[in-house]
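re: ur question from the group chat, yeah i did fold both. here u go
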Amino acid sequence: MEWKIEPREHPSDLDRRAISDALEIFSAARAIPYKPDPIALLIKEPERAHTIGGLWAKFYYDWMHIELLFVPQKYRGTGIGSQLIEHAEDMAIRRGCVGVWLDTYQFQAPRFYESLGYDNFGYLSNYPRGFGRHFFRKLFSDQDHTASET
């Protein structure tokens, strides 16, 4: 069998999908199949029809992963961010999730998540250069300790 490595500076969505599909097949044979179930909590002003912010998350592998959270500047400090997180956590608990995890940049909101009881379980320095990226989680129980942490 022959193979070659072909570098691509601007890969296509099909290139990504080929790798992703192969990885999903490999992983599904060894673990739970990856079947993300997305949810959104949208912020809308009564006089506007369009979304001005909110939360986007996915449920998979018995966890909720918050991918996006944005609160417009004029609404920061009003409690809407905390309400979004609380609502998302309630949804995760109802689905029997182990917990919630997310990541945020140093210049975004690490203190906000700490104030809500999230544990910083990882940090990537100089991402982007001069800053860092924090990884947070909140456990709902000790049930995730069945697998060893590395």
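okk and heres the other one u asked abt
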Amino acid sequence: MARNRSFAVLGAGSWGTALALQLARTDHEVHLWGHLESEINPLIADRENKFYLPGCPLPDNITATTNLGLAIANSRDILIVVPSHVLRIVLEQIKPLLREKQRVNWATKGFELDSGLLPHQVVNVVLGKGHQGCVISGPTFAKEVGAGLPSALTIASEDKKLAKRIAKQMSNDHFRAYTSKDITGVEIGGAVKNVIAIAAGGCDGLGFGVNARVAVITRGLAEIMRLGKKMGAKPTTFMGLSGMGDLVLTCSDNQSRNRRMGLALSAGKGIEEAQKEIQQVVEGVQAAKAVHQMATKLGIEMPITEQVYKVIYENLAPQEAFQNLMSRELGKE
């Protein structure tokens, strides 16, 4: 297949595998990279990612490899699908391998913990703007995308033509991609919703009911919008798929690892026990610290985020955290 119809997907977890499957369905030659032979070799042998995305067979136009150079050399476009805490590491690994016109896209959600940078800022620092592509984000569970169920998400880039091209390349009759120029807003929505989802899971785990969960979601959106405004995002972005859409999905369904973390914490489990039970990275745990630090630095009131931070990092009891939220001074909406 011609190189201009090829994609390297870097990260063979559940979401990376699901996006590789979607790209394969739109007639791309996909090179799926993972750094662990213990994960990639069974995937090659079984033609299925049985650990991260069982039940979704890999078609012939997906090639799995641990050879990063090979994956990139055979691809026009690159899509990084790794947790936020290793994004910089992967970018530094691919930097000497990139060709001049290759664009690097990413589906990473979260702030970099030490620097407080959003993913596109990390990409710019490591690679420069010449290789910056698009951020891919929205209300999508890997299992459903992998199974080919109807889904929609947002693709954002400062390069309008590039965003349209990537959206067209990924879309078909059951997968729809919308474009945006608000990279910052899309990334903030994708990062902070994970923190709010932990709160929503905790709320349900404590048996507080649907009213309380919806209050958490709605007031959580207000926190996202306050942070977004301070960081230069467009308010309308948070009403879209990558904002409200992703927030509602992540807070409402137990496919969400962040929601399950909240449920586990409300049941009295510690972070390590809950993480072991969930088995995959829970982005909201690191995001709670990064967002709390950002809110403090910028002087933004984010009470739900603050209480989630205290539960995770200061051992505050979830019941007490919700009491703190309900006893705050009354104010206008």
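fwiw on the second one: The beta strands are 6-10, 29-33, 62-65, 77-80, 103-106, 132-137, 151-156, 175-180. The radius of gyration is 19 Å. idk if thats what u expected
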